[in-house]
Amino acid sequence: MPFSKLGLHPDLTRAAKSLGFIEPTPIQAQAIPLALKGEDLLGCAQTGSGKTAAFAFPILHHLLEHPRPGLRVLILVPTRELAAQVEKMFSDCGRFTPFKTAVVIGGVSYHGQRQSLAQGLVLDEADRMLDMGFLPDIRNILSRLPRQRQTMLFSATLAPEVEHVAAFALHHPHRIEISRPTSVAEGISQVIYPITQTQKTEFLIAWLKATQIHSGLIFCRTKHGADRLATRLNALGFSVGVIHSNRSQPQRTAAMDSFRAGRTKLLVATDIAARGIDVRQISHVINYDLPRHPEDYVHRVGRTARAYGVGDAITLMAPDEQTFLTAIERFTGATFPRAVLPDFPYQAPPMLAPPKPKTLGQIRWKNFRRSFRRSR
Ligand code: AMP
Questions:
Q1: Which residue, by CA, sits nearest to atom 14 of ligand 1?
Q2: Domain extent at residue 169
Q3: How many CA atoms lie within 13 A of 282 on its CB side?
Q4: Shortest CA distance to 287 belongs to which of 170, 176, 173, 203?
Q5: Dist. CA 193–CA 360, nearest whole Å
Q6: I need a surface site. Which of 23, 135, 287, 374 has the fewest CB within 10 A?
Q7: Is there a domain that residue 337 lies in?
Q8: What is the pTM of this model?
Q9: For 25-63, what is each residue's pLDDT tens digit?
Q10: Which of 5, 87, 278, 282 most suits a substitution to test ligand 1, by most atoms within 8 Å of the C-beta?
């Protein structure tokens, strides 16, 4: 179905064309017609599937069809980078419209604008907002909005907390599920490299030297770990940026800009900072540490293969991270292949086979030993 058949204002169809959007993505094809009718939506689609334009186009359409002065639409997202990304999409989709967008981020008051908040509300990446403790803020903002409004909630994962917000924020929403909420985009090939924690950096360096990387995003669990790894890689001559929440906004923006422009090939990031990263050409996502929440794995690897492209995701797994991998494999319903790096001087043989599930007898024996110890 071409964009022109969706019922959008001609200025928006023209923008889609100029952006090279030939056909709507599946989430757009389903969400746009419903959003144009003013329906509430609960949209679940994998990362990089075009969710932002799925709500940007209908919102701009409503604004064009029903012009009124003042602040008209509020979009809530969990991170600054995502806020910048969403703003960019709005100005791209609205390039032939007269509307202005603004980003309000940490520490900036929007007191003056509060009175004029009106009918539209979008919650994007709702799962992460809830993880980050934004529920009271969401409730607070909702209480200031008219009861009669259109609300759209988008998320790559449909955690129970998201359902909870949907229950009080949305009114008879249409549910759109494009893929299993836990699934990873099809174009991403995923491999696990078992390696001890102490050899991880050495391994990563050897792997980077052995691999043709166009641009790679490296995930670390902690800010400190991210800084340390970036310093080490920079010292070895790799061009590396760092992005995490302890860095100042200008530093974060500069790191993103050089990564996007290809001046730095590698970007080391923590989970929080990475949500909004939509850089088309990321060829590799590297999990230096395993994420503690399986949803984060889906979001991390979703930074590659954007817009139904292809990409590689590799994960360095230390023996004590096996439980996190098991949780991810259960969550995504996939078993990832384990691999070794040829000629790497492994200090311990890498654990290539997934651990065998424990037999009932083993579990009973463990429980018996535990209760025996407790009783003494
Ligand atoms: P999102 O899921 O909103 O982060 O979008 C992921 C990427 O898909 C962005 O780089 C968009 O520019 C791109 N995109 C969105 N809609 C389309 C479309 N209909 N055709 C091609 N690319 C698109």
A1: 50
A2: 3-177
A3: 31
A4: 203
A5: 29
A6: 374
A7: no
A8: 0.62
A9: 999 999 999 999 999 999 988 767 899 999 999 999 999
A10: 278
